[in-house]
Amino acid sequence: MVNFMKEHFGSNSKDIMVFVGAFAKDGMIWDKCPPFAEENPDVWKEYIEKIDDTHYNIKYGDRLYDQLLENGLSKENIYFDSDNTVTNKNYFSNNRSKLLNEREGRNLFGITFDSLPVFESSESDEIRTRLK
Fold first, then answer.
1. Beta bridge partners of 18
2. Could you read off the pLDDT of 47-84 as tens digits, one per residue?
3. Which long-range contacts (CB under 8 A, 24 or more apart) does 73-77 make?
């Protein structure tokens, strides 16, 4: 999205603000090394913690944060929601759905322009939670 914004809208990476909604943080444990990580070991090696032979902790948030920095965003403009979809049952969780044999959902992202005044008027410490 950052590259798209730069190429199509002339955006400057340092001016882009990113708000990452709730996602699977602590407690997102895989029973095997994920295929995407096995296919791209150089990309994921720092973000996968092998707990034991059958448990892997995937640090998605750390990877996302580093990827945003690699694309030129300013760390002051990167915000993470503090909620965790694995532990907070008010959110949809693929992990929980798979365990219950329920239908899975998908993620959503979007771009908005001129939202800064709205953010500033409702800014709180909870919204400004940073991962790192």
1. 78
2. 988 888 888 888 888 998 999 999 999 999 898 888 88
3. 73/2, 73/13, 73/14, 73/16, 73/18, 74/13, 74/14, 75/130, 75/132, 77/14, 77/15, 77/16, 77/17, 77/18
The Cα 127–Cα 81 span in angstroms is 6
pTM for this entry: 0.70
Token representation of residue 6: 């730069």
Distances from the Cα of 88 to the Cα of 19, 63, 84, angstroms: 19, 22, 6
Q: Are 131 and 62 in contact (CB under 8 A)?
A: yes
